[in-house]
């Protein structure tokens, strides 16, 4: 019976579910890609699908503004990440992530190491709504409620944290990376928590509490608490 009800809903809103399916495929591509170019392509596809879903009620000006703002911030962050990947390729000569990680000391000894860190951090921080790039997430909550709950509090916003986890074996060789990630994460956590208690609508609370929790996880990554941040992540999502 529940299956039949779901099918009826999908028949009423077919475009919505096509956009949602596009996002699901893109997110799976992000977490399974072992090539930096593929990772970038799927990364930007999550931004495109997010834009389409936020702007689903295209007659609403708030939806238009929220979609455009989130798209601009996350896409520009993705371009910064791509710049970092290009610099990594110039050092290692490889686009395969496992090969890049195995050659981490060559990257750490390169004069491009700090620029690489900065570019990848911009990509991660924009996607995971870290301060000062957090401004897109509250505006994105004008999307239909399933989008707010699925994309903008559970999955897409974790892509930046996934990027940090993926490349911490390389980037973590720098104290600059450790201090930067920890500081930004803590600032975001405090800022999000303070703003969450000042909200009067459910989606506003969801947005800022999500920002705060993302900041907490990022700060744990920064202080080397990979196990702690993973435990917090799994506990928060009931996995």
Structure overview:
There is one protein chain. The protein has 239 residues and is mainly alpha-helical. The chain has one domain. The chain is built from 13 helices and no strands. It has helices at 2-12, 14-32, 36-54, 61-92, 97-102, 104-108, 113-127, 136-140, 145-155, 159-171, 175-196, 202-222, 226-237. This is Monovalent cation/H+ antiporter subunit A. It comes from Staphylococcus gallinarum. It is found in: Cell membrane; Membrane.
Order of helices and strands: HHHHHHHHHHHHH
Task: Report helical residue fraction.
Answer: over 70%
User: Per the principal axes of the C-alpha atoms, what is the gross shape?
Assistant: globular
Low-confidence stretches: 1-10, 225-233
> Number of domains in the coordinates?
1
Transmembrane segments: 12-31, 37-59, 71-92, 112-137, 149-170, 176-194, 206-233
Subcellular location: Cell membrane; Membrane
Main location: membrane
Domain NADH:quinone oxidoreductase/Mrp antiporter transmembrane: 33-223
